[in-house]
Design brief:
Layout: E1 8-12, E2 20-24, H1 27-47, H2 50-85, H3 90-95, H4 98-106
Antiparallel strand pairs: 1-2
């Protein structure tokens, strides 16, 4: 094997068949690799840019607040429903005053 010879690299083509081709590791191969690395560097720089990270944080924070509000609304609704329905149970019903429960629901 010669010291100057460059090894062959297998490359998957971008067509739908996904054929594997042998490609020389020559100047054209290095140039293509450099172009791909440059493209990846640009994409990475866009992903970690300060405005994009800030916007991602704002959207994530608003989503968390909205999700917590919905969950808490469901939890409070279930607890209120349980309190209204537990008034009929002899031991628990005496503990929960029917007039107090009705008064609280009438203020809503």
């Amino acid at each position: 094997m010669k010291a100057n010879s460059s090894p062959k690299i297998k490359k998957v083509s971008n067509d739908k068949k996904g054929k594997v081709q042998d490609v020389d590791n020559s100047k054209s191969g290095n140039n293509e690799l450099a172009q791909r690395i440059d493209k990846l560097n640009v994409l990475l720089a866009n992903q970690i840019s300060l405005p994009r990270v800030f916007l991602r944080g704002v959207v994530g924070g608003l989503g968390s607040i909205l999700g917590a509000t919905i969950v808490m609304g469901i939890v409070v609704g279930v607890i209120a429903w349980l309190l209204v329905n537990l008034v009929g149970v002899p031991v628990v019903g005496d503990f929960i005053d029917q007039e107090y429960v009705n008064e609280q629901f009438n203020t809503l």
